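Workshop exercise sheet. Pairs work together: one partner reads the sequence aloud, the other fills in the structure field after running the prediction. Swap roles for the next sheet.
Pair: D.N. / O.F.
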Amino acid sequence: MTDTSADTAAIRDGYMQQARRKRLYGGIILLVFVALMASGFRLADDRNAGGFWSGLPNVFDFPADVIADTWPKLNQLPGHMTYFFPALMETINIAAVSTLIGAGFAMVLSMLSTRGLARWPRLIPLFRRAMDIMRAVPEIVIALVLIFVLGGGPMPAMIAIAFHTAGALGKLFSEVNENADLKPVEGLQSVGATWLQRMWLGVVPQVSPNYLSYALLRFEINIRASAILGFVGAGGIGYELRNAMSWGKGRFDEAAAIFLLLFITIVIFDQLSSHVRNLMIAKRERGRA
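Structure field:
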């Protein structure tokens, strides 16, 4: 009994030491994080055109101006929304096409960068670094370069978003591929199927629900991205919003109509994609049962 009590006490003491050490490390990491945040905020505030604290009381000035300009013209909002609806459809089209193109490239890149599926295993690090670069470059930077080369319009936005989407979805798709069962692939290989046939018939049917779920989520993100790119001349509803805001007071009712259109669109597609994902999850659970 004495030996058992001594062992229990030793285990308890060891556990308490580990717990104290963990709390100490956690406290140190928290202090470092707070110090980095404070120094980063101070540096950003010093380099800002105006001080953050001095400008903070004015943060609600623009919303107040929009509401004050829109309230007397509420009866004109439906007309404004109808007028800007084609620009909204252009934004949705940009997001849809760029998502489809980006998802197609992501499928290929993910399979070329997944162990056990890659066509050229030695080139897996190359394809993974390529996807890292595609994710690292923001869409707005790519769009600005393409606008300089191709001129303004929806094409630069579509290419920029598709490029970034391929890198982002490629990473997610490759993680899904790693959980795929390789037995169908091996069976197809044994009967002489090509690499493309093995991927299309042996892997895609397994991972397509997850592919679609991630693609729908990315489509929501791309709608917002295409609207933002409109501010730099890439067309769509963002371009109209920039023009409405640049006129200042007297045209803020048009900006309010565009805000409403964007809000309604994002909510609709968010609910739609969530519904589709829930149906897919329910179907997958029924299949497992």
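Discussion prompt: The two ends are 50 Å apart (CA to CA). What would you look at next?
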